[in-house]
Specification:
The complex is a heterodimer of chains A (150) and B (135). Chain A has helices at 2-7, 15-36, and strands at residues 51-55, 59-65, 74-79, 82-89, 97-101, 106-113, 124-128, 131-137. Chain A is an alpha+beta fold and 150 residues long. Chain B is elongated, with a radius of gyration of 19 Å. The chains are: A alpha+beta (150), B mainly beta (135).
Chain lengths: 150, 135
């Protein structure tokens, strides 16, 4: 039952069985990307920000690394089963001689479909140390229920 | 400004293979940095999301600057992965600093996952303007 649900999301890897294959795929993509000079998104949807989604009995957890993004610059919405995260990362230009410039600024927006129904009223989002955590309680009907055997 | 309206692109975290064998298991990543220099100081900005102040080590020894940061595990014990797009691990990066740095005035500031490191140059290394007198 768990597996059929997960097969609805073919692009999603899950750590236990396919981690190693994902890593190989990533390495191959990186290799071919560098040969052809064309960037190919290695994992996921290729849309910023990259997200990790986990669940426990009662909640889903969506996490993203957003260093340097202030909470005011983030907009998070939930519509039905879809969670949207949008925002902007600003980097002020310094009046100095740059030696390296690897950090990037810009706008982003991404929508992710959650695997089950959620309780939209009790969603909590936290941004600490550049890590965004959105905690989404599952709808009552989605929670596993233990059946007492008499 | 044109750069501010552009869309952010996904950039995969760059994994590093340590030169020495690590004692701790786990992945290691290279943080993205900006480095810029004025007459007085060199400033380094590094993206190290998830690193707390107590887990961050900055070391300047014989003109080699070493940044390393541990990310404390933040997932609950019974959480199960559904989708994994990025991996979490330590951050590590080294730089050679050619200038003479005034070690006593180094300033480090960690905010929202971004480290701002200010390395002031030693006074004598700062350029001094020499007035040219006309005879």
């Amino acid at each position: 039952m768990v597996y059929t649900r997960r097969f609805d999301f073919p692009a999603w890897g899950w750590r236990s069985a396919f981690e190693e294959m994902d890593r190989m795929k990533k390495d191959m993509n990186r290799l071919f990307g560098s040969l052809t000079g064309r960037y190919s998104p290695a994992s996921g949807s290729g849309v910023f920000p990259m997200l990790n989604l986990t669940e426990d009995k009662d909640r889903y957890y969506v996490r993203a690394e957003l260093p340097g993004v202030s909470p005011e610059a983030l907009e998070i919405h939930v519509t039905g089963k879809n969670l949207s995260i949008a925002g902007e990362r600003k980097i002020s230009a310094e009046n100095a001689k740059y030696h390296r410039r690897e950090r990037e600024a810009g706008k982003f927006s991404r929508i992710i479909g959650l695997p089950g129904n959620v309780d939209g009223d009790k969603i909590e989002a936290r941004l600490t140390d550049g890590l965004l955590t959105v905690i989404i309680p599952k709808a009552e009907a989605e929670k596993p229920r233990q059946i007492q055997v008499k | 400004m044109a750069t501010e309206t552009q869309e952010l692109q996904v950039r995969e975290k760059q994994e590093v293979k340590p030169t020495a064998e690590p004692t701790k298991p786990g992945l290691m990543f290279t943080p993205a940095v900006d480095i810029f220099e004025t007459d007085r100081e060199i400033t380094l900005l590094a993206d190290i999301p998830g690193v707390k102040v107590r887990d961050l080590n900055i070391d300047l020894k014989e003109s080699v600057l070493t940044l390393s940061g541990d990310v404390a595990p933040f997932e609950g014990a019974d959480e199960q992965d559904i989708l994994v797009e990025y991996e979490v691990g330590r951050y590590f990066r080294q730089f050679t600093i050619p200038e003479v740095i005034d070690q006593s005035k180094i300033d480090a500031n960690l905010r929202d996952g971004v480290l701002r490191l200010t390395l002031p140059k030693l006074e004598k290394a700062a350029p001094r303007k020499i007035a040219v007198k006309t005879a």
